[in-house]
Amino acid sequence: xxxxxxxxxxxxxxxxxxxxxxxxxxxxxxxxxxxxxxxxxxxxxxxxxxxxxxxxxxxxxxxxxxxxxxxxxxxxxxxxxxxxxxxxxxxxxxxxxxxxxxxxxxxxxxxxxxxxxxxxxxxxxxxxxxxxxxxxxxxxxxxxxxxxxxxxxxxxxxxxxxxxxxxxxxxxxxxxxxxxxxxxxxxxxxxxxxxxxxxxxxxxxxxxxxxxxxxxxxxxxxxxxxxxxxxxxxxxxxxxxxxxxxxxxxxxxxxxxxxxxxxxxxxxxxxxxxxxxxxxxxxxxxxxxxxxxxxxxxxxxxxxxxxxxxxxxxxxxxxxxxxxxxxxxxxxxxxxxxxxxxxxxxxxxxxxxxxxxxxxxxxxxxxxxxxxxxxxxxxxxxxxxxxxxxxxxxxxxxxxxxxxxxxxxxxxxxxxxxxxxxxxxxxxxxxxxxxxxxxxxxxxxxxxxxxxxxxxxxxxxxxxxxxxxxxxxxxxxxxxxxxxxxxxxxxxxxxxxxxxxxxxxxxxxxxxxxxxxxxxxxxxxxxxxxxxxxxxxxxxxxxxxxxxxxxxxxxxxxxxxxxxxxxxxxxxxxxxxxxxxxxxxxxxxxxxxxxxxxxxxxxxxxxxxxxxxxxxxxxxxxxxxxxxxxxxxxxxxxxxxxxxxxxxxxxxxxxxxxxxxxxxxxxxxxxxxxxxxxxxxxxxxxxxxxxxxxxxxxxxxxxxxxxxxxxxxxxxxxxxxxxxxxxxxxxxxxxxxxxxxxxxxxxxxxxxx
Length: 753
Prior knowledge:
This protein is mostly beta strands. It is built from four helices and 41 strands. The strands form four sheets. It has a 31-stranded mixed sheet that branches. The protein has a six-stranded mixed sheet with strand order 3-4-9-10-7-8, with no helix packed on it. It comes from Chryseobacterium paridis.
C-alpha cells in the first residue's frame, strides 16, 4: 500500500460569518487601561479556550466545562470525544494523567471549574505526545497559586435509568510550603441494562435472537499524589492510583428462532472482578531561567481481571441436535508493565524550543483461558481442548522523539519532529502455536501556522501514528451470545498505521473550520463472519453415531462469529464547522458544531485467523467483503442560559444528532439525544439536575448486507434516558495550588488494558 501524499491546497467555500468584534472579546479595566481578552482562539498546533474569561465557568465542575468546550462532546455523560477523532487522551498541565478512564472521569467531575485557567484542544498531537492512531489530546491547564492551606470537594449523586444508580466521591488537597498532597476517593453501584435484537442469514436461512443483559456493578477507587519541591529548580513526586470493580451475576438471556420456529433459549451467567494498581515516581529539574527542564519517570502497572461464566442452552422441544447443552468458561487476564522515560525541553532566548525524549515499555500479559463442556454421559463437565488456551504475550517498545518548534515571525510559526519506535513482541498459545513480531516505525510530524491578521488564522498539520492492538483484543477467548453466535478475539491482529492531515481555519476567535484527511493501512475492526461447520453427530454420551454402512453421520451447523482482525484500508475526509459565542451580555452562551464526513473502507476477510483444523471436521466460511463509500453528518448544539442577574441559576439545553453512516459491519442508523439540565449555586453548594436523552433515541441499530445477499443486523438498546440529581459541596481555600500533575511512563499502555 502506498503512503498518501500531503494535501497541497484546500479551498474553503460557503463558510462566511459576520459578527461584531466586541462580542468575541472580553474587556477588563485596570487603572484606566482597557485590556481585551480572547475567550477562544487558535494558537500554533492547538485551540485554546480561556475558561477564566468564559461566562459558563462558574459553579460547575471540570467535566461539565469540557462538554461546553468547542469541538468536545459527551453523549453519555461518561466519556469525552473530540469530533472526528478515535479517542481522547487527557493531559493536565502538559502531563498525561496517571489514572484509568473511570477514575479520570470521576476526578474531572469533582474538580471545581474555578480551578481551571484554560483548556487546550489538540486535534493532531505532536511527536512529544504519547498517543496512538487518530487520537486527539485535551490539555487542562490549572490556575496557579502558592497559598498554603487546604480545600476539598464532597459530592453525592443519584441516577435513575432502568435501575437506580447511586454514587459518592470526595477529594482533599493540602499545601504547606514546599509540600503538597492530593487525594480522591469514589464509590458507587450501578446496574446496566441492555436489550438486544440480532438477526443473520441469507435467502434460505434466517436466525433471530432477542433478549437482554443485566450487569450489576460495584466500584470503588482512589488516588494519592504527593509532590515535594526540593528547591526552586527541583521537584520530586509520587503517585498511586487504584480501581476495583465487581460485577457478579451478570445475566445475558437470549431466545433464538430459526426460520420462524422457536429453537432454544441461552442464558449466560457471569461473575467478574477487575483490579488495577499503578505507581509512578517523577523527578523534574529546571535547567535555566528560560523554561528548559528535564523530566524523568519510573512506573509500574498491574492489571488483573478474573471472569467466570456458565452458559446454558435450553431446547423448546425434544429433537435431535436440539438438546440441553452447557459449558463453563474461565477467562483471567493479568498484565504487568514496567516503564521509564526521560524528556528534555530546551528553550532558547529567541523563543524557540527543542523537545526530545526516550521511553521504554516492558509488558507481559498472562491469559489462561479454560473452557469445560457438559456431557450427559458423565453428568459433569469435561475440558474442551479446542477452546482452552493459555496465551502468553510479551512486548518491548523503545521510543525516541525529537521536535523543533520555531516562531519565524509575528505571523508565522511551525513545528517539525519525528518519533521512532522499535517494537519487539512474542505471543504463544502454550502447546499449540505462537508468533514473533518485530517492527520499526518512523513517525514524522509537521505543523505550520499562519496568523493572517487579527481575525484570521490558518494551520496545516501532518502526523503519522501506530495503533497497536489492545491487550484484551489479543487474548484468544470468546464471549457468547449463543453457542453459535459469539465474539472471538484474535492474537494475530497486526498493528495499523495511521496518516493524519488537517487544515484548521479560525475567524474572529469565534468561528472555526477543520478539514481533515486520514488514511489507515492494515485497518482492523470486529467483522461478522458467517459459515458452516460439518462434523460427526454424537449421541448424548458423546459417542459418534454411525449409519448402516458404518460411516459417521455428519451434521452441519451454521455459525456467526464476530472476529477482530485486519481487513484492508480506510480513508476518511471530514469537515467540521463550528462556533463558540456569547450573546446578550453573556446571558446566552452557544457552542455549536457540524461534522461532515466521507468515508471509504475497502477490504476482504476470507478466512478466520483464529480457526485451527480439527480432524474429521470441515469448516466453510463465507468471505466478508468491505466496500464502503459513504457520506454522513453529525452535529451538536450546546446552549447555556443564565436565568438570574446574580448568576446563580443556569439552564442547559443540549442536542446531539448523528445521521445514518456506513461502517465496516453495516449501516449505523440515526442517533440523537436531547439533554436538559438546571443548575443552582448556593454559596459553596451546587445542585445540578439533569435529564439525558429525553426521548430515548440514542441507541445503536446496524444493518449489514453482503454482495451475495447474506445479512447481519444488530439492535442494541441501552435505555439511554437518565434522570440525575447531584449535590456538590466545596470547602476550604479554593485558590489553593494543586499538586504537580505528573506524566506516567506507562501511560502509553494504559489505554490498551
